[in-house]
Specification:
The protein is an alpha/beta fold. Helix content is 42%, strand content 11%. It has two domains: 3-131, Rossmann fold; 168-232, no CATH class.
C-alpha cells in the first residue's frame, strides 16, 4: 500500500533530499515551500505523515503541527519537525503542539526513513488499540458515608456545680443555696457554734486558724476567730 508524506520546507534542497530518500519505497512525496500551502494541501492529500520546517514563510512548523492536532480528521497524523543545524528548537512549544518527533537538518537519509516509519507505526498501533479497547468509563467513586458522631453531652456552664465529692467537713447541708434568689441572711450564733464545733472535730487548731475563712468564706473572719478561740 502506498503512503503519502507531505514535506513543508522553503529549501528546494531539502525537498529534493526527502524525495530521493523515499524514492525506493512505496511513498508519494508532496512538497510545499511554506506553512500556508501546507495547510491547504492537508485537506486535499490526507497524508500519512508530515515533515514541517520550524522556520519557513507563512505558518511555521509549530503552527502547522497545532493545526493538524486540532483538525477533527487529521489529529492522529504524526508530525515530524525539521530543525536547521543553527536553529533554536523550542521543545516545550513542540510538545504543546503535539509533535511526534524532530530531526536536525542536514540528516542522514536512513535516519529519516527509520524515524518516519517509527512514528507511523506508533500512530497505527495507537489507533488500533483505541478501536479494539475503548477506554472504559469508570463509575464515579462512591461518596463515602461520613459517620457522624453523636453530639457530646454539653459541658457544664462555667462556674457551675462541680462533680460531687465527699463532704469532709459536713458543711454542704448548712450552705445549700436558697431556692429563691432572695438576699442571704446572716448566720445566727447557733449556726456559727455548730460550724466551729464540726471544724474543730476534724482539724487541729493551727490548721483551723490558717484555712477556716477559706473553707467557710461567708463567715466574718472576726466572728469565726472569736468562736475558734472560745472553743479551744
Amino acid at each position: 500500500m502506498r503512503r503519502t508524506i507531505l514535506v513543508a520546507d522553503d529549501s528546494p534542497t531539502i525537498q529534493r533530499l526527502v524525495a530521493q530518500t523515499f524514492a525506493d519505497g512505496d511513498f508519494d512525496i508532496i512538497a510545499v515551500s511554506n506553512g500556508d500551502a501546507a495547510v491547504r494541501k492537508l485537506d486535499e492529500t490526507r497524508p500519512d505523515a508530515i515533515l514541517a520546517d520550524i522556520y519557513m514563510p507563512g505558518k511555521n512548523g509549530y503552527e502547522v503541527c497545532t493545526y493538524v492536532k486540532n483538525h477533527a480528521s487529521l489529529s492522529s497524523t504524526p508530525v515530524i519537525l525539521l530543525v536547521g543545524a543553527f536553529d533554536a528548537f523550542d521543545e516545550a512549544t513542540a510538545r504543546r503542539a503535539g509533535a511526534a518527533a524532530n530531526i536536525t537538518k542536514p540528516f542522514e537519509p536512513q535516519a529519516l526513513v527509520s524515524l518516519v516509519l517509527s512514528v507511523m507505526s506508533e500512530e497505527r498501533a495507537e489507533s488500533a488499540a483505541a478501536v479494539e479497547s475503548p477506554a472504559a468509563v469508570e463509575d464515579p467513586p462512591a461518596v463515602a458515608e461520613t459517620e457522624i458522631d453523636a453530639e457530646p453531652d454539653p459541658l457544664p456552664p462555667a462556674g457551675g456545680p462541680a462533680e460531687s465529692t465527699d463532704d469532709l467537713l459536713g458543711l454542704n447541708e448548712l450552705f445549700k443555696p436558697p431556692e429563691s434568689p432572695s438576699r442571704p441572711a446572716s448566720l445566727t450564733e447557733e449556726e456559727v457554734d455548730r460550724i466551729a464545733d464540726r471544724v474543730i472535730q476534724k482539724l487541729s487548731v493551727p490548721v483551723i486558724e490558717s484555712i477556716a475563712w477559706d473553707v467557710v468564706p461567708d463567715l466574718m473572719e472576726k466572728v469565726l476567730r472569736d468562736e475558734f478561740k472560745r472553743k479551744s
